[in-house]
Each structure stands twice: as structure tokens, then as C-alpha cells.
Amino acid sequence: MDIVALLATSALVVTVLTSLIKAIPVALTSKYPAWVNGILSVVAAIIVQAPTFTFVGIWETVLFAFATAVLAGFAYNQYTSKLKSTSV
Questions:
Q1: Are 20 and 44 contacting, i.e. CB atoms less than 8 angstroms apart?
Q2: Could you tell me if 9 and 48 are in contact, meaning their C-beta atoms sit under 8 angstroms apart?
Q3: By CB distance 3.0 to 4.6 Å, which of 20, 46, 61, 88 could disulfide with 51?
Q4: Is the pTM of this model over 0.70?
């Protein structure tokens, strides 16, 4: 499968999971945003890639989760900075 399609799908999965995680108290998600992003990115990578449990498959999933975390963090920071600048 195309890597761009996988990343787009994982972004959608991270968005859905972020919406679902709002059920957790806000203090947890605001106190540990990097951990929340990392956990959601790993979950998204596993859901989207359906990895094979081989040495290569696990490393591909780890790298994909890292790329997803970086992209999700960048997108989140850009979105919140726009929200803060419009509300001030």
C-alpha cells in the first residue's frame, strides 16, 4: 500500500482517537501531551498497518508510528496556535 495513503489514514485514526480520548480527564491529556500523542500514534500505526510480527515488520511499525507522531504533533501545534491567536 502507498505510504501517503497510510499516513493519511493514520491521521484520520489519530483524529478519531483524539476525539475518543476526550472522555479521559483533561488534566491527564494536558499534563502528558507527548505521551498521549505517542500512544495514539502507536495505536494508529498498528490499526492502519496491521503489522506482521517479524523483526522487519516491527521496525516498520515503529518507524511509521514515529512519523505519525511527528506529523500529528506538528498538526496539533499548528491548530492550537491558530486557535490561540484568533481567541486573543
A1: no
A2: yes
A3: 61
A4: no
Residue 68 vs residues 8, 38, 49, 83: alpha-carbon distances, Å: 9, 9, 12, 22
What is the rounded distance in angstroms from the CA atom of residue 56 to the CA atom of residue 6?
A: 17
Residue 46's contacts (CB-CB under 8 Å, 6 or more residues apart) are: 61, 65
Q: Please check whether residue 51 is in contact with residue 58, taking contact to mean a CB–CB distance below 8 angstroms.
A: yes
Nearest to 14 by CA among 61, 59, 75: 75
The total of structural domains in the chain comes to: 1
- Residue 11 corresponds to which cell in the numbers above? 491521521
| Boundaries of domain holding 8 | 3-87
Q: Are 46 and 61 in contact (CB under 8 A)?
A: yes
Residue-wise pLDDT for 24-80, tens only, equals 777 777 777 778 878 888 888 787 777 777 888 888 888 888 888 887 777 766 665
Q: Extract the C-alpha cell encoding 42.
A: 502507536
